[in-house]
Amino acid sequence: MEASEMDEGSESRSGKYYTDGESSMSESEHQHALEVVFDEDNARRRKSSLVSSENPSLAQQAAQKRKTTPCFVHQLLGKTKPRKGQPALAYNEDRSLDKTSESQNQNVHSRLLTKRQLSEMAIGVRELSKKLGSIRLKLKVKTVFLLTKAHDSDLIKLTRNIAEWLLSTERGTEYSVYVENTLEHNRMFDAQGLVAQDPSYQGRLKYWDNDLCRRHPHLFDFAVTLGGDGTLLYASWLFQNIVPPVLSFALGSLGFLTKFDYADYRETLSTAFDDGITVSLRLRFEATIMRTQTAHGDGKHDLVEELIGDEAENNLTHKPDGSYNILNEIVVDRGPNPTMSSTELFMDGKFMTSVQADGVCVATPTGSTAYNLAAGGSLCHPENPVILVTAICAHTLSFRPVILPDTVVLRVGVPYDARTSSWASFDGRERVELHPGDYVTISASRYPFANVMPQGSSSEDWIGSISRTLNWNSRQKQKSFKEWEQQSLDKDSEALKK
């Protein structure tokens, strides 16, 4: 079954992840067309303490151009029929954006949605994920993105092999292959020698950098990673919004997310391009740093009052300072401070608890086997739509890990009276200091991670992976009573003979 059969009346090209439609909008304006926004039956926004701005003209253009969205998730979500009793998906013309100075080019963030809108978004992505897990999507691939560890000489050689195979005219399709710009003058990769093999390679071997991935993610039809789970996390970090389908060859240590054997790369890629792929949509979090607009340490302000009390309606208390989409976890810890951190947790505008610990780990189901596991959190199947909250070395006997639904907005803040600041990291990157009064908002992202899975894979594969890599519940089997009784009789017989 192809993706075009998922919904009646869909266009023949709906099975593609990316469309080639022309748009008169600029690059920044086109990003608005990628958003999925819901009917605003409830006009009340969340208490987010934001400086707001409006731009209805861009929203109207987005509604007219949404069929040309290069993000396959939102393209298919737009074709999804609403369930009975739910409003249809629509574009919101009243967009509250993050910053007054850069609001023209910013996307609407999921933390700005009402409870109903966030729930409908999560349910829509969840249902789409179930459909994608049971069908095969045929792609029209022209551009392939290659990612590997640029400092590993062995992996550089393997990356060159794949690039050479993709560029070969024997493929029948003239693929454009993007490799990291650091490989352009790498002696091991030998780009000049590769291009010298065939004149047609000259215009099809190209190079990417972080800025290109951030500004033009729709250029890539398909992504291939060579490495371990860390390499896959780096791919998620590069593609903060639109994520091309990512196929990963297992060349790392554990390999929870890398499902394909490099030795079979020719057959694997040929099957993916010719016969289609099965995609698993992995939940990502959107995390936004919120900076207090109040002088630090004045002792006159209370973070609880600002977020849930009477001061919550004052939209000048905090201002956003960067957003990140993460695949594993957000960690707020004590950083280089010698004392434990003090943080406060809020859930959906309500105070949850105070935490005295080395830190707090907020993990996705995918990240449940990473830092969350080391901190004593629960293992969680990646199809569960949840948020895992685990304290890191809590200075209490009663703080147990908790699991929350993915439809809530979580906030982790540093109280104004905290002795020291805390530090936040996002998938182990972009370490940022949080001063007293600052907090991080965490909610389900509109942009899940599209992980390509082997054909015929099932939920049992996850159990196999944790058993294989972590020796989960590995123990010598207890002997049966009968066998134990027989051994005792044999020992007694030997003792009598002596």
Protein topology:
Layout lengths: L26 H4 L25 H10 L6 H8 L35 H18 L10 E6 L4 H15 L8 E5 L10 H6 L8 E4 L1 H6 L6 E6 L1 H10 L7 E5 L14 H11 L2 E5 L2 E8 L10 H6 L9 E9 L2 E5 L7 E7 L2 E14 L7 H4 L11 E9 L7 E4 L4 E4 L8 E5 L2 E6 L4 E6 L4 E5 L6 H11 L10 H17 L1
Parallel strand pairs: 1-2, 1-4, 2-3, 4-5
Antiparallel strand pairs: 6-18, 7-8, 7-17, 9-11, 9-15, 10-11, 10-14, 11-12, 12-13, 14-17, 15-16
In short, what is this structure?
The protein has 498 residues and is α+β, with helices and mostly antiparallel strands. Helix content is 25%, strand content 23%. The chain has helices spanning 27-30, 56-65, 72-79, 115-132, 153-167, 191-196, 210-215, 229-238, 265-275, 303-308, 371-374, 460-470, 481-497; strands at 143-148, 176-180, 205-208, 222-227, 246-250, 278-282, 285-292, 318-326, 329-333, 341-347, 350-363, 386-394, 402-405, 410-413, 422-426, 429-434, 439-444, 449-453.
Structure description:
This protein is α+β, with helices and mostly antiparallel strands and 498 residues long. Helices cover 25% and strands 23% of the residues. It has 13 helices and 18 strands. It has helices spanning 27-30, 56-65, 72-79, 115-132, 153-167, 191-196, 210-215, 229-238, 265-275, 303-308, 371-374, 460-470, 481-497; strands spanning 143-148, 176-180, 205-208, 222-227, 246-250, 278-282, 285-292, 318-326, 329-333, 341-347, 350-363, 386-394, 402-405, 410-413, 422-426, 429-434, 439-444, 449-453. Strands 7, 8, 9, 10, 11, 12, 13, 14, 15, 16 and 17 form an eleven-stranded antiparallel beta sheet that branches. A five-stranded parallel beta sheet has the order 3-2-1-4-5, sandwiched between helices. A two-stranded antiparallel ribbon has the order 6-18. Helix 5 (153-167) links the parallel strand 1 and strand 2. The longest helix has 18 residues, at 115-132. The chain is globular and about 70 Å long. The model is unreliable at 1-69 and 81-106 (pLDDT under 50).
